[in-house]
Amino acid sequence: MPTMIGHVTQDRYDELVAESKLLVETERDTHFKLGDYALEVEPLQPKGGARAAAGQDVQSVEETMARFADDVGICVHSVMNYRFTAAHWPPEHRMQGVSIDIHRILMSHPDRFELIRNPPFNPHYGTHRWTQDAARRVRGWNVQHPVSQQEKVTAIHGLAVDDQVAAQVAADLLQRPAVAREVPPQVRVETIGGLAHDEQVAAEAARRLLHRPDVAFKAMGDDRARQQVNHAQVERGRQAREEYERASELAPTVKQFERTVEFLDLVGACHAFVATAGRVVPGLRGRSMSDDEKAVLRENVARVRATLEWIEHAAETGDVDVDEALARLLRGE
Predict the structure, then answer these.
(1) Where are the alpha helices (DSSP H) in the chain?
(2) How does 310-325 read in b/e, with b if 16+ C-beta sit within 10 Å?
(3) φ/ψ (deg, to 5) at 70
(4) What is residue 43's DSSP assignment?
(5) Residue spans per domain, the chain
(6) Which residues contact 132 (CB under 8 A, 6 or more apart)?
(7) Strands 4-5 and 8-9
């Protein structure tokens, strides 16, 4: 059975390719000839060429080329492209078998005359030949059919210029576990941080993550994170109490009872601290602490000392407010 390409045999396909090459070559010559004729009507000016030279009482280049295009029966944009390309490729440097489109892509390259005579190797065809993508690679432009990883990445970036499109693409890709695993950990952290600028989004993300025991355990290993959680719990309790005291008719009675409970809790906390210290400190006999351990211990002793002074002040005056310096110290900042 003969090899089929599309709906034709390999032999017929080769015939069609050969005939098409002749058509492309004829088209190339036609387009260059149109460009040469347009140049004869309006030569390219030394700089720009969009307007006639100063002091010449003639129509503008655009107007002349528009008339020429109308008279010939083609698009003025095409005429301008043919003219500009022909100006950069004198007839003796035009390469047979290479389309005018490739000449146009390479026309601003400083070594174009030498470059076009040395086409790159094309692994698909197994020979050296110019294609539009090959010319685009030489110029550092985006290619129409990306092959390398970087070309594919660049193509995706080009399609995702719109922020909404980029967001949807990122969301879709990150739903693929294999893709998510390839993202470096630090990039993931920074990305999550960037996405969670909105407090509601950040709170919901944190809530869901902390439902995972392994995540919660690791997060609480960070002193600052643990302190912030503790502070949030205290603050939430304070707000709930203020709301209860403001809205409940039983609040005055309960408040009196709570004062007794708070006194007992405070005495119990002091007793627990003394008992724990009495059990742990003797175990330090003969042990030499490192400088880091001493620094941590001094920091915590300072916090304990400040807390004790706060308790004494509250008991003597009834004032439980703390200044900012003490508040930062108690939070471990």
Answers:
(1) 10-41, 61-72, 76-88, 100-106, 112-115, 132-139, 149-159, 163-174, 177-182, 185-195, 199-210, 213-219, 223-247, 251-280, 291-317, 324-330
(2) beeeeeeeeeeebeee
(3) -65, -40
(4) P
(5) 4-157, 163-211, 257-284, 288-333
(6) 99, 101, 102, 105, 144
(7) antiparallel
Q: How many CB atoms lie within 10 A of CB 103?
A: 24
Run means of pLDDT, 10 residues per run, the chain, 333 residues: 87 91 89 95 69 54 91 93 94 92 93 94 87 90 80 70 71 67 65 64 71 76 77 77 70 60 72 83 83 85 85 82 71 66
As a whole number of angstroms, the distance between CA 79 and CA 67 comes to 11
The pLDDT, as a whole number, for residue 214 is: 80
What pLDDT was estimated at residue 50?
46
Pairing assessment for the beta strands 127-128 and 121-122 based on DSSP bridges: antiparallel
HSE, CB side, 13 Å, CA atoms: give it for residue 226: 9
Beta bridge partners of 128: 121
Let me know: does 119 contact 129? Beta carbons within 8 Å.
yes
> Which amino acid is present at 247?
A
Handedness of CA 46, 50, 51, 54 (dihedral sign): negative
Burial letters 152-180, b for 16+ CB under 10 A, else e? eeeeeeeeeeeeeeeeeeeeeeeeeeeee
Please tell me the predicted confidence (pLDDT) of residue 59: 57
Question: Can you tell me the distance from the alpha carbon of 280 to that of 138, in angstroms, rounded to the nearest whole number?
Answer: 73
Residue 115 is predicted with a pLDDT of 95
Question: Residue 332's Cα: distance from chain center in Å?
Answer: 35
Conformational region of residue 55, where left means phi above 0, alpha means psi within -120 to 50, and beta covers everything else:
left
The whole-number pLDDT of residue 15 equals 93
How many angstroms separate the CA atoms of 146 and 278, rounded?
72
Strand partners for 127: 122
